[in-house]
Amino acid sequence: MQFLDAFLDSVRIELESFPDAELILLDNGSSDNSVSFVMNEHPWVRLIKSPRNLGFAAGCHKAADESKAEFLVFVNNDMELEPGFIDEILKPFLDAKDVGAVSGLILNDTGTQIDFAGGDANLFGWGFQRHHGEPASVIDEIQTGESVSDRLEVYATSQFFGCGGALAIKREIWEKSGGFDNDYFAFFEDVDLGWRLNLIGLKIVLASKARVKHRHHGTAVEMPDSLRTYLVERNALYSVIKNYDDNNLARIFPWALAMANERALIDQSIEVQDLFRGRWYEDIWGTEHSKEIDIISEIKDMKHAGISRAKKIIKRSQERSKHNVRLLAIDEVFRRWDSLMQKRSNIQNIRQVPDSEVIQLMVEPYRTVLGHYREKELMEQFSKNVHI
User: Do 107 and 211 form a contact (C-beta atoms < 8 A)?
Assistant: First the structure.
């Protein structure tokens, strides 16, 4: 609720230039006083309510179903719109017929750093925020032209997806593509939607003058890190299964599983030489590895460590407890296999663009998630043995 006032005030100012537009605000199963606050302080808002948290994806669908507008603009409630946002985010649709969705430029809460300035992806369904953390001046250096062709050069027409937290899309495209996949709940549903739009030959562009300030994860800050890890791991695999053609799915999916499993092992700091020390390791692998990572031994040594060292040990122990989360995500994928196959069939039936062209739009197809040396080694094996 703490972000609602600034958000709604910024929207109200924007809507003064668009008398036919309306704000539909979904209360997604809130447990605070958000509903009464909006009704009392912002009675102009059209408020709809869900008795439980539907998640981001299904929440967007519920709000979209309440609207009959030609254009849908999704904005998180931890955003603050800068003047001209709506006008700027709709311009690309008027300039080109092949624009499927438009993302706004998302800055941090002070407007000094970039949160999102375009979306890239790797081959395993993970999305990455272009220019994240860089100074906002990086975008300000772009020279905006006056003609339609000049304006199109400013839009990042090669981006793979637009951030769902500040995204515009035509209703007919939303309905044709299926919009966000409700089963994702939250995270990477925008990557998946961007993938589908690319498959049907539509562009996802960035309107660099459509700006919002974002209190990063302001509405998801209470979500446990383990749940966030589970959702992104699972949802990335969902996207791989649904969107590749048969040939690439057969080649890429096994490696996507292997990468997810590797991250689970990294979370727990498990290495084969640490489990099988002594003679058996030497007999099988040739050399003995003496590295000690036994967490119990580490905790016993805490009395001899400084406070900062002790805190690091506890944090590492807690982080390792996540390792089953990624494995649970893999398990969930196979439990939903029938549903995924039906969705896959629907997507492949509307496909117009080959994977070879879509993969070029990913920009960072071989980027790793954690940046750990083991993950990088496995990615290198993948790139060497699977020719995409």
Answer: yes
| Direct distance between the N- and C-terminal alpha carbons of the chain, in angstroms, rounded to an integer | 47
Beta strands in the chain (DSSP E): 24-28, 46-50, 71-75, 79-81, 99-108, 114-116, 119-121, 127-129, 166-170, 203-214
* 94 and 141, same domain (yes or no): yes
**CA gap 37, 32 in Å, rounded:** 10
Lowest mean pLDDT among 78-92, 95-109, 219-233: 219-233
Q: Among 126, 380, 374, which residue's Cα sits nearest to residue 237? A: 126
Domain presence at residue 220: no
Q: Are residues 126 and 63 in the same domain?
A: yes
Q: What is the CATH number of the domain that holds 26?
A: 3.90.550.10
- The mean predicted confidence, pLDDT, of the chain is 87
Phi, psi of 296 (to 5 degrees): -65, -45
Its pTM stands at 0.87
**For the ranges 17-31, 45-59, 107-121, 306-320, which has the lowest average pLDDT?**
306-320
The count of domains in the chain is 2
Residues 6, 16: Cα–Cα separation, whole Å: 16
Structural domain including 241 reads: 225-385
Tokens linked to 77: 């409630």
Q: Which two tokens stand for residue 64?
A: 């979209």
Question: What percentage of residues in the chain have a pLDDT greater than 70?
Answer: 81
Per-residue pLDDT tens digits for 25-51 = 999 999 889 999 999 999 999 999 999
d(CA 80, CA 5) in angstroms, rounded, equals 10
Q: Residue 328: enclosing H or E segment and its boundaries?
A: helix 323-335
